[in-house]
Specification:
alpha/beta; five-stranded parallel beta sheet; 15 helices; 16 strands; globular; binds adenosine monophosphate; binds zinc ion
């Protein structure tokens, strides 16, 4: 079925051919064979977080998806230049330029006055937490550039000026707007149609806007912000991404990713800004991950049902179990989070890790790897790839499974055998462990957490592995 590409340095080692990499493009709505703009390098940009709070496990789905894609491109032997932006100053709460600013909300929550300095302090605190989260879920942050939007304000101002000179921008009472009617084909991504634009009209609050879909490029502020030709204020958040992409990656890039919520407004706006300036296609492959929900409700900091990676680890789960769970679904499929599903993923990953630790090194299983890469080549078919691993597990060796982990990033290849306790738990430790096991069985995670803290106070660490609780001396 596949015509195999012959490469001089195949991913799976000598003799393993790679099928063409098929990726789903939001622009065409179909799977397309990936070919980079330049044979040498793939330029990829992933929309990053606004750092006013901890990332939710929903946000982390975006970065696990981006990282799986990056690992896949690595496996296909491309040199990847990857950028994830950090939005470290205010942008309005929704894509549609309305509501309370997220950074302002963060400052209020932490009892900090609204100043530029405090905004930086808040942003750096959560930017650091974000990078730690990425590391825990298996992202090699050293290979990614994380530009702070605040460090690229002159570039954003220059871009707005160019749009103004070219007749795409106009000044209104509260800042500078992009005139979407001037850009032919506005809204081409995801088929944003007249009905949705009408919906935008109902939210319309500024009578000086020429068209409902027009969006802010520069937001005036009478107290805070940067100086600009339009007075004091802040760049709009859509211009941030475009300016940083132009500066760090160039005017045309290969891949741009984000969650599906960014398609209709943020990414259509990015296309309009960039293509109005260059007259060339901005991004070759737009790719988007679906959302996760909790009890079928969208997870979001603004919705208030956010789960962070820390709360997740506090329950004894390994952060990579979250990654495992995501990989059991396709990135374009909505998933509903339950603690039971996580429990299952945690156990499965612990079993896989144990199997790996018991394996011996050996020759690469080329036949298996060929099948594995074929799953991944089908728009990152991680669920099929995982099923294939389980199916072949009894005959696989360590060397082959290491190759698998290079793409899946589950971390079992870095696992070390657990330090066994020299003595059997007894006395208070034994009682606490039994109580904790019962609490977990009864899904009383709050009690389980309290008991874990008591166990830690006795000098032991407890994690939940393939055979129940694993105890190590701290
Ligand atoms: P934000 O900080 O809100 O801009 O979100 C960062 C990234 O996470 C974006 O790519 C969002 O589309 C994505 N995202 C936010 N919430 C979810 C969710 N519940 N499921 C999946 N992705 C999400
Ligand atoms: Zn963006």
């Amino acid at each position: 079925m596949f015509s195999f590409l012959k490469r001089t340095k195949p991913a799976g080692g000598p003799g393993v051919d790679l099928p063409p990499l098929m990726l789903h493009s939001t622009l065409s709505g179909t799977l397309e064979a990936f070919t980079p703009l330049s044979a040498k390098e793939v330029k990829m940009y992933n929309c990053g977080p606004t750092v006013y709070d901890y990332a939710t496990i929903g946000n982390l789905r975006s970065y696990i998806f981006a990282d799986t894609l990056r690992r896949t491109l690595d496996a296909w032997r491309y040199n990847v230049k990857q950028v994830i932006n950090i939005t470290d100053f205010g942008h309005l709460i929704s894509d549609a330029d309305e509501g309370e600013d997220k950074m302002t909300k963060g400052l209020k929550r932490e009892g900090l006055a609204l100043t530029m300095k405090n905004m930086r302090v808040l942003a750096e605190r959560y930017a650091e937490a974000f990078l730690e989260d990425l590391t825990s879920i298996g992202v090699d942050t050293k290979r990614i550039t994380f530009p702070r939007a605040s460090a690229y304000v002159p570039e954003q101002i220059a871009l707005i000026s160019t749009l103004e000179q070219k007749g795409y921008a106009y000044v209104a009472n509260d800042g500078v707007y992009f005139d979407t009617k001037k850009f032919a084909g506005y809204g081409k991504l995801g088929g944003m149609n007249a009905v949705e634009q009408e919906a935008g009209a109902r939210l319309e609050i500024n009578p000086e806007k020429r068209n409902p879909a027009d969006f802010i490029l520069w937001k005036s502020d009478n107290k805070l912000g940067w100086k600009s030709p339009w007075g004091l204020g802040f760049p709009g958040w859509h211009i941030e991404c475009t300016a940083m992409i132009f500066t760090l990656l160039g005017k045309q890039i290969d891949i741009h990713t984000g969650g599906i919520d960014h398609i209709s407004i943020h990414h259509n706006n990015e296309i309009a800004q960039a293509e109005a300036v260059t007259g060339k296609q901005f991004v070759r492959y737009w790719m988007h991950n679906e959302f996760i929900t909790i009890e079928s409700k969208r997870i979001g900091k603004s919705v208030g049902n956010a789960i962070t990676l820390k709360s997740f680890m506090d329950r004894g789960f390994s952060p990579r179990a979250l990654r495992y769970w995501y990989l059991t679904g396709h990135y374009r499929t909505p998933m509903n989070f339950t603690w039971d599903a996580l429990e299952g993923a945690n156990t499965a990953l612990a079993r896989l890790t144990r199997a790996y630790l018991e394996m011996k090194e050996g020759e690469l299983d080329k036949e298996f790897l060929q099948k594995f890469y074929a799953c991944i080549a089908n728009d990152l078919g991680t669920a099929q790839a995982l099923a294939l691993v389980w199916q072949h597990l009894p005959t696989l060796n360590k060397s082959t499974l290491k190759k698998v982990d290079e793409v899946l990033g589950l971390g079992f290849a870095e696992a070390r055998p657990p330090k066994k306790l020299a003595v059997e738990p007894k006395g208070e430790l034994d009682t606490l462990l039994k109580e904790r096991a019962n609490a977990r069985l009864a899904k009383n995670f709050t009690l389980a957490d309290e008991l874990r803290l008591k166990i830690e106070a006795l000098g032991f660490a407890v994690k939940d592995g393939a055979e129940g609780q694993e105890i190590t001396q701290k």
